[in-house]
Amino acid sequence: MTQQLFHYHSFQLSYIEWGHGHDVVLCFHGFGREASDFKPFQRLLAPHQRLIAIDLIAHGNSRFLDNRDPTQALTPQEWVSLLNAFLEDKKIDTFHLMGYSIGGRIALCTWQWMPEKVKSVLLLAPDGLKKNKLYQFTSGTSIGRALYRYFVRKPELLFATAGLLHKARILHPKLHRFVHVHLDSEAKRQLVYDAWLAYRLFFPNLKKLSLMHQKTFIPLTLIFGKNDSIIRPHLAKKLTRKFRTHVNVMEINAGHRLLNDDLIDLIIATNCWPK
Hints:
Blueprint: E1 4-8, E2 11-19, E3 23-28, E4 49-54, E5 63-64, H1 76-89, E6 95-100, H2 102-113, E7 118-124, H3 133-140, H4 142-153, H5 156-167, H6 173-182, H7 186-198, H8 206-216, E8 220-225, H9 235-242, E9 248-252, H10 261-270
Parallel strand pairs: 3-4, 3-6, 6-7, 7-8, 8-9
Antiparallel strand pairs: 1-2, 2-4, 2-5
Helix pairs in contact: 3-4, 4-7, 5-6
């Protein structure tokens, strides 16, 4: 398992490959994680398959290069051009998609913007089924971005507010813990800021995806953790209400951290791994 780099214009992507087959499963990890999270899935690979996990921008060694404004959002057009260049370099015509958490949102957008290349979609606790108003305000407005830049340097007010909301039972205990785990250092807070800005234009249009799915009927599977307080399982209902075609929705006895052997055992048992 060796990290590799791909360069295209003002972008650098780092990625890891497992297997040598022609049938590719393209994977996107969660926030604060890396492509190596998908290593356990290599035991699912058939001889004809290959797993390629790409580090998100601001994760691993994926980043904007020096000639690009780091606060500029990655646009749909840029993402399609970047991914097409990567696929051409790797001699890939079509692929399966797998995404976890924010990687699920990126997978949904990739499917929407490049439908002719996608053979199946497997989403694990996917973000993107509901728009987060705090995220939209923080990343999508100049005031929100200015406030967050302030919190990056001086987080005391942020933690105090989270503490008050937790005591008032407005903020779920697991979300309260999430704030302290993911925002407890300036480097982590900067990562949130960088990733939020980079992907702030990545919001799937579920209605369009539904219409596409009615034409293609590609396999679509969503797996949630029953005890997930970050991406709640009931969000699957939002998707299934919009999709008139079959969507395979499952739950596993877990929280938000799904990438483990139990998940792989479920995928094997339910036969939902891409063929």
